Amino acid sequence: MSRSLLAASALSLLIFSCSPAQALQTDSTEIHVLKAYGAVLASQAGSSQWQQLWKRTRDAGYFDSRQPGFFTVPQEGLPAMVNTVLSAPDAVTAHQTTRAVFRHDFKQPVGTLDSAPVSAICVDVDLRTLPASTSVDPDSDVGTVSLLTAMPCR
Q1: Residue 11 CA: distances (Å) to CA of 7, 120, 144
Q2: Average pLDDT over every residue of 73-80
Q3: What one-character-per-residue DSSP string does the chain give?
Q4: Whole-number pLDDT of residue 130
Q5: Angle between the N-to-C axes of helices 78-87 and 31-44, in degrees from 0 to 180, rounded to the nearest 10
Q6: Is 136 left (phi over 0), alpha (psi -120 to 50) or beta?
């Protein structure tokens, strides 16, 4: 093996062994644990996390009535509703290994999908920055978790 290839291999091994702990795998995490992370997020998420959520939601078109799926409730009421989705979800579904979709049904229409009224809101959350060993408690470091989008859903 050439000296440069050996050095590159050793460097790769060193980088890999010093990398952060394995990310939380939502597809192998129990639903009650994901719900607990949602509750912590609802109370602990920072303003930049919420700003990114609203930007991504707007960019995805969920505030545009010309789109196939959009919110019909007043925008000023959505932050409290999304907080409810995270703190008291009716369902949580693992998605793409490190993401989870939190869903809550509000019993009254909140938006439309393909011209049909829907009463649920889903919030897509990316938990990849949480190490698998992170404890679920009010001191959990959820400041790096990404609130991706909020959307009307079935």
Answers
A1: 6, 49, 28
A2: 96
A3: --HHHHHHHHHHHHHHHTSPPPBP-GGGS-HHHHHHHHHHHHHH--HHHHHHHHHHHHHTTTT-TTSSEEE-S-GGGHHHHHHHHHHS-SEEEEETTTEEEEEEE-SS--EEETTEEE-EEEEEEE-TTSBTT---STT---TT-EEEEEEEE-
A4: 85
A5: 140
A6: beta
Q: To 10 degrees, the CA torsion angle through 142, 147, 153, 154? A: -30
Q: Which amino acid is at 126?
A: D
Report the C-alpha gap between 38 and 135 in whole angstroms.
13
What integer is the mean pLDDT of 51-60?
98
What is the structure's pLDDT at 131? 80
Contact 146, 113 (CB under 8 A): no
Q: So what's the pLDDT on residue 147?
A: 97
Q: Which two tokens stand for residue 147?
A: 């609130």
Instruction: Please list the residues that pair with 93 across neighbouring strands.
Output: 101
Which residues, other chains included, contact 68 with Cβ-Cβ below 8 Å and sequence gap of 6+? Answer: 113, 114, 115
Assess whether pLDDT exceeds 70 at residue 129: yes
Q: Which two tokens stand for residue 63?
A: 């505030």
